[in-house]
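Lay summary. Proteins are chains of building blocks that fold into shapes, and those shapes determine what they do. In this project we predict the shape from the chain. Here is one chain we studied, written as its sequence of building blocks.
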Amino acid sequence: MGGVPGVRLPAGWAAAGRRSVRVTLAGGAGFYLFLYGFGSTVAATYALFAAVALAGLSHIPGTGRQRAGVVLRLVPACWALITIGTFLSVRTWSAVLGMLVAGFVLAFVAVGGPRAAGAGPGLQLMYILPSFPPYDPGSLGERLAGATVGLALLVLAEAYVLPDPPAVPYRELAARAAECARGCAAELAGPPYALSAAAGLRAEEAGPALRPSRVPEAERPAGPGLRDRALTHTGLAARTLLVRLAALPPVAGAPSAADREVLGAVRDTAREAAVLLRGRGPEPGGDAHAELLRARAALAAGPDDGEGPAVLRRHAAVLEVADAALAMSTAAGIAVRGRAGAERAAPGRFWYARMGTARLWWHRLAGHAVRRSVFFQNAVRLSLALAAARVIAGEDSLPHGFWVLLATLTLTRTTVRETRRTVRIALTGTLVGALAAAGLLALAGSDTAVYAAALPPLMLAAFTLGPVKGVGWAQALFTVVIALVFAQLAPATWQLAEFRLLDVLTGSAIGAVFGLLAWPRGAQDELRRSAAVLLRGAAEIVVATAARIAAGGVREPVAGVPGHRSLLHSLVLAESAYAQFQSEPRPHGPAGAWPASAAGGQDWQAALLAGHHTLWGADRLLAVPARVLVPPLEREPAEAVTRLGDRVAGRMLLVSAWLDPGGDTPRTPVALRDPAFDGFEAEPPGAPRQYYAAVLWLDSLMTDLERITGEAGEAPER
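And here is the predicted shape, written in a compact code that computers can read:
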């Protein structure tokens, strides 16, 4: 007989099922141990809800062992939250004030990255739980004991029960991109001095693989620490390097020896970076980074006389390839070795390389402590909603007021549109669950054995179906689970289900009200605004950089060009808005969208890349290792680069106005490629290498602008 064919569950179902088993084992074991083993209802409650908070309600990304490590580090924070909540709960005003502060802080720490954001809701629940009757500071020991056992069981379950398949680390993705760049550079450095179709295809796949939207949450280097920042920088530099290699202008015959030397050094540097990222250490006796610096300097210092525009343009493109490879190599060294790898880091582009962890955290927190930050907006919205819910529940007019805050916490969304939709579905699910719970309570009466036997399978169903089927299923099944838990803690009637429905209705209404009053459109409007601000700041730097290139003069080795810090701050806010935007529903027919995109809407990541390319290009063109006198350009090249910079900056302002239009913004679209360029002399006589480097940079910014609006022929990333 043939065997029964294996059944492979979809990834979402499998992940939810594994998590459900771990939550049920940890929470159920602690609950039954304390309730039926030691007769402590308080410890049993905290053991159960500690596991549910940090595994059921929270969504900490990563493998089981990674989540176990996060939960273990959060145990002291849980102790502190339970203790503070216990003592502040004795008076309504102190409980409300504590809820306001704790709600904001625990929501705002989401700026620390996906793991901090994922743990936030669970930590909120650990503070909410002791904020309600019984107001008994004397039971603090039982509360802490129950929570500690529940968390310990959860750590063991996460680490050893049904382990998750590992994801590809971001360092490995960056190493693959570096290895791909090595192959491309090797082909360009030797006959026939062109990329093969296979190499071009590999480059097209390796670069986008580093986009945050394509990387599992646990592997995204989104934290404020040194290594995460450097790893993010490594990915951006690797993507830029692959694009620069693929776009390298062809030459008739063989390229110059200087070109080939630089490309050979790029090949070796990319190989060295890939080896370093994979943890194998640098090759003995090799320093490809230093060799690339030397080859780049030799090419940049070459004579301009006798070289035609095509050769100078090629040299400028090769220098951009070298700069991207050097940035990738430097960032990879910092990502792997920390501050020990910062000896090569320039102070402008790698401003973070010599900062301590506390200072980097402060930089991240201070950067988002502004009204335009979506993290700040979310924290304010949620903290006000929780405080209002605590005021209403604290009047003792609602039995089980804890459920009011739980509903507010779980059903409040970042847009009023999604909150309204979620509340409607959640209330329907809660009504169905309440009817089922009422029937079960009426039939079983005071027979706790029935509830004890039914709780584990229902927990398995709730934490499996909820994440997969949506909030309606989650609320329906969780309502029944809650009823079975409280029926074992104290005698209960069918009215317990009625109280649950009333509390969810109250909590969801509070969430909907504050979702309407506080930034009701979430990141959708904020992304438009922040991207427009980013482009306006970039336009200022473009004009200033082009003017300085034309005028020459004394240049000092400063940490970044003027406006660098302001543009970097705008870039951080735009990136956070984009990250939230990806998780929010899309409006129908986005108002004010540039009409040229075939897919509708803008390529927002292109706007972020335009900000990065503005910073990197300006630093590359103006940064000097020591004080130096730079001669001005001749009249025609000076006029050309100044005019071109003004045109690019003007187009940046045009795109920014369309992204975030005012009441009197003209609605007639204007072509990005200015008609003035048709008669513009792009190759004036006597133009030096720096002119062509600036032109290449400005042209790449125009390409970014075309991608934002869809005029480059690419579908926007949603």
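What the prediction tells us: The first strand starts at residue 553 and ends at 555.
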